[in-house]
C-alpha cells in the first residue's frame, strides 16, 4: 500500500509540527540540515536513521560531511511528500534532539 501525496494544506500542516524542516524550493520534498558535535555523532545518528528507514522501507536522500548531514525527504513512488516523509522527519528530529 503506497501512501498518497499530501496536498498543499496537508503539507503545511505537517510542516508546522516539524522543527527546522522546510519545503525544497521548486520540489515536492522536505529538507533540513542537521549539525552534530563531530563525525562520530553524525554517523551514529545516521545509523539509527538507517535502521528506521529499513523498518519503514522508506529512505532518505542525504549528504554528509564531517558533522553535517543535509537531508531531503520525498516519496519517489508517489512523486512528492507523503506521511512516510513526515514520519521519518519526525524520527530524525527526535533522534537528533
Ligand atoms: C521497492 C521499495 O519498497 C521502494 O523502492 C521503496 C524504497 N524506499 C523508498 N524511499 C523513498 N524515499 N521513496 C520511495 O518511494 C521508496 N520506495
From TrEMBL:
Q: What is its EC number?
A: 4.2.1.96
Q: Which GO terms describe its biological process?
A: tetrahydrobiopterin biosynthetic process
Keywords for the protein's UniProt record, in alphabetical order: Lyase
EC supergroup of this enzyme:
lyase
Question: Which Pfam families does the protein's record reference?
Answer: Pterin_4a
Q: Which reaction does it catalyse?
A: (4aS,6R)-4a-hydroxy-L-erythro-5,6,7,8-tetrahydrobiopterin = (6R)-L-erythro-6,7-dihydrobiopterin + H2O
Q: Return the InterPro entries for the record.
A: PCD_sf, Pterin_deHydtase
Taxonomy, superkingdom: Bacteria
Query: What Gene Ontology molecular function terms does this protein carry?
Result: 4-alpha-hydroxytetrahydrobiopterin dehydratase activity
Is Lyase among the key words of this record? yes
Q: Which Gene3D superfamilies match?
A: Transcriptional coactivator/pterin dehydratase (3.30.1360.20)
CDD domains per UniProt = PCD_DCoH_subfamily_b
HAMAP family reported for this sequence:
Pterin_4_alpha
The record's NCBIfam families line, in alphabetical order, gives:
PRK00823.1-2, PRK00823.1-3, PRK00823.1-5
Q: Which family does it belong to?
A: Belongs to the pterin-4-alpha-carbinolamine dehydratase family.
Annotated protein name in UniProt: Putative pterin-4-alpha-carbinolamine dehydratase
What species does this protein belong to?
Zoogloea oleivorans
Amino acid at each position: 500500500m503506497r501512501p498518497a501525496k499530501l496536498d498543499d494544506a496537508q503539507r503545511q500542516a505537517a510542516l508546522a509540527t516539524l522543527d527546522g524542516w522546510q519545503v525544497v524550493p521548486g520540489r515536492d520534498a522536505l529538507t533540513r540540515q542537521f549539525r552534530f558535535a563531530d563525525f562520530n555523532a553524525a554517523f551514529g545518528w545516521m545509523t539509527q536513521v538507517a535502521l528506521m528507514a529499513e523498518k519503514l522501507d522508506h529512505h532518505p536522500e542525504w549528504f554528509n560531511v564531517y558533522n553535517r548531514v543535509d537531508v531531503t525527504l520525498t516519496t519517489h513512488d508517489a512523486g512528492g511528500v507523503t506521511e512516510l516523509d513526515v514520519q521519518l522527519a519526525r524520527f530524525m528530529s527526535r533522534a537528533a534532539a
